[in-house]
Specification:
Blueprint (H helix, E strand, L loop, with lengths): L3 E4 L2 E4 L4 E7 L8 E7 L6 E7 L4 E3 L7 E6 L4 E6 L8 E8 L3 E3 L3 E6 L1
Parallel strand pairs: 2-11
Antiparallel strand pairs: 1-3, 3-8, 4-5, 4-9, 5-6, 7-8, 9-10, 9-11
Length: 114
């Protein structure tokens, strides 16, 4: 089974940017939908963005216009470009491969200070 490993998290100030990467141990070409989720302390995990094999993407309202998801099937990687970060974006960010079943990464911490 494909394993996912996230990287790129860290501590930034409000208004700054981060780029998260998700590297797969195998091909993601057969995984129709790749996604980024996040979970803040005391809150449920929520969908941030997803992209299908055709390159079509969807975003949570809270990140529209600030975040951008992309995938590179040749590199077996998915990315999340996060701009204009705000403290409310603080969370553990998880990469996921959707269907059939769900493959989760281990998560990477993003902390945005005000």
């Amino acid at each position: 089974q494909v394993q996912l490993v996230e990287s790129g998290g860290g501590l930034v100030q409000a208004g700054e940017s981060l780029r998260l990467s998700c590297a797969a141990s195998g091909s993601i070409g057969s995984i129709n939908v790749m996604a980024w989720y996040r979970q803040a302390p005391g809150k449920q995990r929520e969908l941030v963005a997803r992209i299908n094999s055709g390159g079509n993407s969807n975003y949570a309202d809270s990140v529209k216009g600030r975040f951008s998801i992309s995938r590179d099937n040749a590199k077996n990687s998915v990315y999340l470009q996060m701009n204009s970060l705000i403290p409310e974006d603080t969370a553990v960010y998880y990469c996921a491969g959707l269907g059939p079943g769900v493959i989760w990464g281990q998560g990477t911490q993003v902390t945005v200070s005000s």
